[in-house]
Amino acid sequence: MPELPEVETIRRIVEQELVSQSVAEVLVRLPKLLRTSPIPTLEPLIDQTLVAARRRAKILLLDFSADQTLMMHLKLAGQVAVVHADGRRFVAGHPVPDPSGPLPHKSTHVEFRFSSGSILYVSDLRQFGWFRLMPLCEVERALAEFNFGPEAVGTDSISLSQLQDRLARRSIPIKITLLDQSVLAGLGNIYVDEALHRAKIHPATPANSVPASALPGLLDGIHWALDEGIAQGGAKIVHNKAYPVNGFPEVHGRRGEPCPVCGAVIEKIRVGARGTYFCPTCQPAKS
DNA sequence: TGCGTTGTTTCACC
DNA sequence: CGGTGAAACAACGC
After folding, report:
1. Which of helix, strand or coil describes residue A252?
2. Residues of A designated as active site
3. C-beta atoms surrounding A197 within 10 Å
4. Which pLDDT does position A48 carry in this prediction?
5. Selection from A54, A108, A50 nearest residue A81 by Cα
6. Closest CA to A191 of A206, A178, A209
7. CA distances to A51, A56, A146, A224 from A182, in Å
8. How far does the CA of A105 sit from the C1' of B6, in Å?
């Protein structure tokens, strides 16, 4: 489920492995992925050079020569793979199908074949993702329509006072507020659970009831969760079960397992309409 | 087989 | 206008 860490991992792979390469051929097996695209096909990318790979919130932006930018959203189940002519492979995003299995596979919908022989495969088991091709000059306006808040991590990421201001106006659960991309951009269901556990805040606490004294810890928790996710190249969650690496994730996808901090049994509840994992001892409901 | 799944949008309503 | 809550939607695997 590509959230910020998965998308950032993909961005880094594309940047390191494909920038400055030229597109020889593009295959689109599932044209509906382009149904909201200003330019309805990817044909204009043929013979162009990949110039840069950028990210805003969970959106990946690939800039090509001749001022064309491809915006991609991977939604729930997008997976991106780069395979070089010598067989070296780099994969990130959704862990299903098996990233080390055959490519292309049943849910591989788009292929970019570069003149070097490297291939970029985009797969999407759920087919919820989308591609939008547009001139570079229209990217800023297209991004503005999403009303994204400040980035959750990185340079220019949200400040403590910005976070405080934004939470003060919300009475809905802190978890739902943090998932709102107009409040801050990048958190999804996995990492928000991790951030709140780290900060010892119950996920159903009204956002404006989180004490100011807890906000520095919350911001640290957000950064910790996302940085850890990026460091691992994304978390592996399959059918609501986590496959932790070095103990991360600590709670998400781990119902019934002991909390790594206190040993209490991790519970799963619903907050808003979201499956939510937390430790009832570390994150007590506010009395 | 109907349910669960998530990011996002839309809608009615206060 | 802005916040809220609920519903809808995309499509698939179990």
Report:
1. coil
2. 2-3, 58, 274
3. 26
4. 96
5. A108
6. A178
7. 29, 12, 8, 21
8. 23
